[in-house]
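User: Show me a protein chain along with its predicted structure.
Assistant: Here is one chain, sequence first, then structure tokens.
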Amino acid sequence: MPEDATSSRSPTAAERLTAFHEAGHAVMAELCGRQVTEVEIVGDREHSGMVHSLAFPPDPADGAAPEAEVEELNRHLKIILAGMVAEAMVSGREGWDETSEDLDLAVRFAMRLVDDCEDVLPLLSDIRIDVERDLRRSWQAVETLAGELLRRKVLTGSEVRKLLATLPT
């Protein structure tokens, strides 16, 4: 899509939520040290938007400590949950969207960190609190990115970083 692509109509409520959802993922990815390569809210039949990022998890062959893998899983869970959290912060909804693919993915990752499936939701709730705190601190970045996504639909990673670099920390 061309860089100056704009629409004369106002975004729908669903488009706005999608923009904040994807902006939440992207901002959290950057906060967690992942390099975002693209964010889009164009969507397809299966997804309303996507964030692509590069991740370099610790290589066990390099003698990485098990704690490094746990930290990497925690960062990944924060990024996964950030979309739902940002969306909830905008919409005012409480609780989990149990039909969410993000929640399903988060549960699968969380199962790698706990011994008992009953410990999954408490773990995710604790991580959600951390994510909400981090997103509140970076809310201007989330709003700016969501607004630009609504205007342009697709942003490259360098465009995301350029936008975020102009914001006060």
